[in-house]
């Protein structure tokens, strides 16, 4: 009997059977399991999402519209799209899934290279991300977008507008515009623009889909600009491994007469451990840097829960003047650092509006499909009570409209930062 079993096993190998992977495959979800997953998703957001009060979203209507679709679901792929469409009704760039499809929209701002908003009915470019396709294809702040991939802008925008709203909201229209311009993970983008009345066609993905695999030479860059130190964080505020090399780089710059901390390439945010580690090198006593509010507790009990997060000093203290640079790709924890330095009165914040990502996010996982999702659960504010997403740098650098000329400063925000430090001498 044992010999016969061995022959069968060998025959199985010869036929290319691979029992390991086959055994690891999970059976497809049932319709009931999809419905249970969606109910968990919908109820978790209803109970915990902390920005409904500032939205026009009718969350009950989102469930009513999704229910008929759940009755016909037959694949994980279709379920992901249903969840994406539901989250889009919040028009919140800080709410998202842990998975995507090839035709899903890129993350805003992490996977984007352009920022535009509606001004007097026109879609006006506010900023372009240095070194990426939008900039390389000639797009500059002040230009007006008129079409995307050959489709008139208003028509191209329509699929991305929320459909379950109690009333109109300009923020929802701007959210849809950013989603449209972000593109998906497989389709090259073509934009039609106007600059000083002249037509311009831009192909930001002509050299390849560079936004799909963004890489950096290191966690940060450190150098000297004359007597001023310069430290730029390269989207690594969520990496605790940044702390030790950052400490070493800052210690090497202790003799400088001022420091520029550049947070303009931190779109993915990070964690408070890294942020507090950075701020702790610049203060001499414990102090609050950010205000938290857990709105869920007030909803459930009628009692507000608000607290301040404290930064403690650590390591050798850098005592010279500091400027923090921010922009549209300063996101989440990068924004927290900016308001923190401002609250601590330890740096001047210079630049433009930031990514305006709402609140502190919590992560959840659906019970059957295992799909993860993140939503803002804590409202975050400056210690003075100003919402983090509405913070504007006290020293504002307005992006220059139109195409750059050789006579213009290559980096106006950095030049403004250096001017601030020169005035402190």
TrEMBL record:
Species assigned in the record: Hymenobacter arizonensis (Siccationidurans arizonensis)
PANTHER family xref list: INTERPHOTORECEPTOR RETINOID-BINDING PROTEIN (PTHR11261), RETINOL-BINDING PROTEIN 3 (PTHR11261:SF3)
Keyword line: Hydrolase, Protease, Signal
Protease in keyword set: yes
Domain Tail specific protease: residue ranges: 207-398
Signal sequence, renumbered to the chain: 1-24
Alphabetical list of SUPFAM superfamilies matching this protein: ClpP/crotonase, PDZ domain-like
Protein's UniProt keywords contain DNA repair: no
Protein name: Carboxyl-terminal processing protease
GO BP terms: proteolysis
Molecular-function GO term, any one: serine-type peptidase activity
